[in-house]
Amino acid sequence: MSELSRRSALAAGSLFFAGASAGPTFAADRPVAPTGGAYQPQGNPPVQPIGGQPPKGAPLPSGDLQFQIKRQRAMELVWWAAPAVAIYRFRAAAFEDLGMKDNDIIAYSHTATPKLEAITANSSTPYIAAYTDLSKGPVVLEIPATGPDGSLYGQVVDAWQFTIADVGPSGMDKGKAAKYLFTPPGYKGKIPPGYLHVPSPNYRIALAFRSVIAKGKTQEDAFKYAHRLRMYYLSEAARPPKQKFVDPSNDRYPTIPIYDERHFSDLHAIFSIEPVKVQDKVMMDMLASLGIEKGKPFKPDESTVQAMREGAVAAWAHIQWWFDHLPPDRLYWPDRHYASLLMADRNRTFTYEYDDRIDVISRAAQFTWCTYVPKVLSDSPATQYLMGMADKDGKLLEAGKTYKLTIPAKMPVRQFWALSVYDRATFGFIYTDSGRTTLSSYDMDKLRKNADGSITLYVGPKAPDGWESNLVPTAGVRPLPAMRLYGPTEEINKKTFKMDDFELVG
Q: Is the pLDDT at 338 greater than 50, yes or no?
């Protein structure tokens, strides 16, 4: 084909011919894609093809299209990878800020304060956590038996934060002393007898347990009980090393995902080691367009950094909008304004994976405001976490305002209830002068009671005079209150009992 004929074909809008060259020889002669204004077909042929180009007069995008594509991809990658980034932040902060290594164990001596910068953490029971890398070999986790000295409840999750083992009386060990053995993807080695084998689909795994205080015991006892845990590589099983424990009770532990270009450094760290599922290959191509590829350094240029920054901010803003416009079917009671912290998929799991699609946005929302979810949501869960999304009039809770909630004298719980308040923007605890994050039934002797035995609690910057003991302060930020119900009765689980909504004071 001659150059003249080639130009004629381009002018006619037809590139459907065999052997069309896109080589650099003709780069200067190729029309540049127009941007901005309205689209006008080239030339004036009597008939235009039905397809292949926008309609005449259609508005064209303006600006740097390559930048816009990167920004859009960055936003979608934040949604897609929300579970993975959230759990990786725990690991990264433990190593960077607490000086931990694989198989070291975090054991809090006290309940959490705002210094534990984590998504909707509880401050009623002390936490236990650990991280390991199965690319170095299988890992053993020794669990003490549930008994008069204490018990453990929690999950072990993979790099996508999907639960691979529930631990404790409702887990694989059923409350008995046990040795779990976690093996990496594709492991072909022999499994020694006496282990509870858990194959992991990813290399990096993490655990989070609660050390529950046994009847008649103290928080110090629960702390000592946690120190019965052991974690080491199978190759060390003959002579396990001395277990290292870290107590960050007084340390800042910043685990919440960062919504700027640093979000993508975490993505690079994750996917430099983890295997890729078939359904995620399209997203891996998006990562590559931002310079994130396995085996290659991550050195984005200034424009890409800006696109990632704007994309991360947009993704955060959209998830915030999603919670503000929560679908009615997500409310725990149809005539109240609470949502369960655990918003499972249609299969009552947390994969959001169906035969025909993966519900990326619902998955992103769930893992934006919650970590360490169970494998399957039980019809009668051991705990219920009910998040106050709006007041009794259906208005979203606002920054700088004070709200009240009355707790009946007899709450339908077998263990205890707790009201924790989070920053609606971060889903973490709020830093305040008092440091108070939670009020619970354990505080009954400190709380002012109503004449009928009920208790009115306040959430906001300031309580009414005389009710300061009943305030969870917000320092003027927008609150997200959570009613945690430990050992809920069937009245809660079957929804025959209903909580009052929060009510604006004044």
A: yes
